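During the second year of the project, the team shifted from modelling isolated chains to modelling whole assemblies. The rationale, set out in the original proposal, was that interfaces cannot be judged from single-chain predictions alone. As a representative example for this report, we include one of the complexes processed in the last quarter. Its constituent sequences, exactly as entered into the pipeline, are reproduced here:
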Amino acid sequence: MLETYMRLSFILFSIMAVSVVVGLIPLLFIQTSIYKKLFDATYFNSNHFSLSELAMLNSFPLHFIKTLTYVRAIVFPRTMKKRFKENILQIKDNPVTYSLALLTILILIYGTIVTINFFIVGGLMYFNDLL
Amino acid sequence: MQNGFSLPTQAQDLYFHHVVPGDTLSGIINVYYPNQINRMQDMIKQVLIDNPGIKNPNIIKPGQLVVLRTASSNMCLAPIELNETNKVKHLWGLMNPATQKAIKDTAPIYNGLSLGLAGGGVGLFTVEKALKANMSLLNGIPDAYHQYKSGAISKYEFDKVRNTKLNQYSKYIGPILDKAIYGDNKVKDAFKLKPGRSLNPTKSMTQHLNKLSKISNAASKGGVVLAGVGLASSCYQISKSDTLTEKNEIAVKTIASTTTGVLVGAAISIFLVGTPIGWGVILVAGTVTAATSWGAGEIAGGIYKSQYSDADIVNSLGINNICN
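Output from the structure prediction step:
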């Protein structure tokens, strides 16, 4: 039973690893290239973000965190209204970009669940002297 | 001579291989006699004749000595010349198990080195970007000064802007960077205006902005170099491993930890961006990401070893060739 669970979790984890490489990273690249304006330093200014946030938003290579900020603003607009005010993109404005942002969030949610499950498997393996 | 096979005549006609965990007889033969898969059964028969201690070709024990023939033995199964990679493996096989163990014990040092260098790289990237983010704040001071000189704003307003920006800057670069860049001088001293005493009263500001720019560029390059060295160190571990299982295990660990690091980093970031955060939270988030990615790598390596050790990932993805 544990062995089957272990194998299944490993397969799901492998799918997640592939999803990150061929899904999440290209998605972030695509969104970065589509909305250059939102990655302009003047848009992410100190009126909306603290300096430490600005440092973090700029600290990840390829501006992935800036892209993620934008993704969150699109998918969960209510939580980011304070930051972006009326500038948040609506689904009716650009359905393609909205879909890309939604797909990014779905991969992240899937990956998070699989990773948590993977650590549960790791714990079970450890207590059964399999790790 | 038995069944067309013969016994070696001299010690120099032989290779001696000490079995290590994960070795298989066919794997060992493949190292010393590459590209001879179609003759594998004959070779196994020959090795069994030369090694009376091996009763079952599927059972060899770590530490056991396996005798193999060299090209000069002039026997019916003379191997082709070893290539450079296999010469290294041959030398490794000649070492006694204690020496092999001592060398393998250094593997955690390489692991630590990889992790340390990768962490150092990320740290330098962060320093560089933090400085750049703060520099944009300081760029506003000369602008405010020129506004003050042109009469657009009062001296009080200029002082307020200047003090606010310098205080924020001092707070956000933190005491360590502050000390490293400005020494015993206060940030305010470093950015002191020299009105009336210089043709360019904002010269000292510009100089310090240039200095910050140079430091951030150097940090950026250092980060790239450190990250590259860390990656090379991981690759070195793969090339150094003498069994396919070990190579695959390292590759699985690396892939799992890297992808988990990207995913967890992204997942944490997407929830943090909605809330005002400080350096402490960034540090905790970074630590959690690093710990999670390391843990996922270890679990994936464990599952691979116990369930999927027959899957050859390093060769199918070409990692072995790249690292060699």
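Chain A has five helices and no strands. Residues 69 and 76 of chain A are 10 Å apart (CA to CA).
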